[in-house]
Fold this sequence. Notes:
Elements: H1 8-35, H2 41-45, H3 50-97, H4 106-127, E1 130-131, E2 134-135, H5 150-161, H6 167-179, H7 184-189, E3 198-203, E4 206-210, H8 217-231, H9 241-257, H10 259-298, H11 302-327, H12 331-335
Antiparallel strand pairs: 1-2, 3-4
Helix pairs in contact: 1-11, 3-4, 3-9, 3-10, 4-8, 4-9, 6-8, 8-9
Amino acid sequence: xxxxxxxxxxxxxxxxxxxxxxxxxxxxxxxxxxxxxxxxxxxxxxxxxxxxxxxxxxxxxxxxxxxxxxxxxxxxxxxxxxxxxxxxxxxxxxxxxxxxxxxxxxxxxxxxxxxxxxxxxxxxxxxxxxxxxxxxxxxxxxxxxxxxxxxxxxxxxxxxxxxxxxxxxxxxxxxxxxxxxxxxxxxxxxxxxxxxxxxxxxxxxxxxxxxxxxxxxxxxxxxxxxxxxxxxxxxxxxxxxxxxxxxxxxxxxxxxxxxxxxxxxxxxxxxxxxxxxxxxxxxxxxxxxxxxxxxxxxxxxxxxxxxxxxxxxxxxxxxxxxxxxxxxxxxxxxxx
Length: 336
């Protein structure tokens, strides 16, 4: 009777090694079936993986551009919401100012003045809106708020018109404060970048210019008209009732006129939004194209993988069966 020359310990190690090898093969095949990709790309593609590395670099770059485009789109949307709010204030204040007529009392004028002052402060605060931790209406200066405190601005405006008694003189002083390059608005009111525009990358060799700043003429004219309406009810100014009425009528008319420039400003932002959308669509198409090319390289055939997995599973079950039978062997059963 032949006698096996394989010792018990050696048999144990051989069986354990075979089981471990089959388990590793099964784990690899399960991973490939789950992810749809070959687990060992070096063995699958060979030593030269230049094409795959190039595709991966392109996909990483496109993902960076996609995130940037999303951020720019959200930034522009935030700007549009802010400008919508300012335009809403402009419209409501204009309606209130234009209710003042030759029969309006001082009490009515003061009430409308309060509405105009509130709108001025809300407009200034809106221009200090931040996207994340950055200001959005200060050009390239994104760290600090582009506008000063609105209450302090109105104090400086009151100082500029102090002692004036006619509508023409007050209007001239406001024009100087808001429009003169060395006037109060540029030296005290607006604190942002005065020359540049915000630029953001949205693709390869493509950037979006965002030129909506808080010192835009359309916004300055809106704030100027609100300030004029607020000054009309200021009791610290020595103005007669007719002058106050005329000032509020003029402020209401100027706010009506400011509607069109504000729409143009929003249209410029809308054009930038269109460019970002086009860039996003282009990036998405490129991501899909490179993704398909990558899948063609690393794809694990699901049918082949499932067939191999079933075969390994059967081998492992057979190995377990043999191991169980060997573990039950005894001398009496061997001698039989």
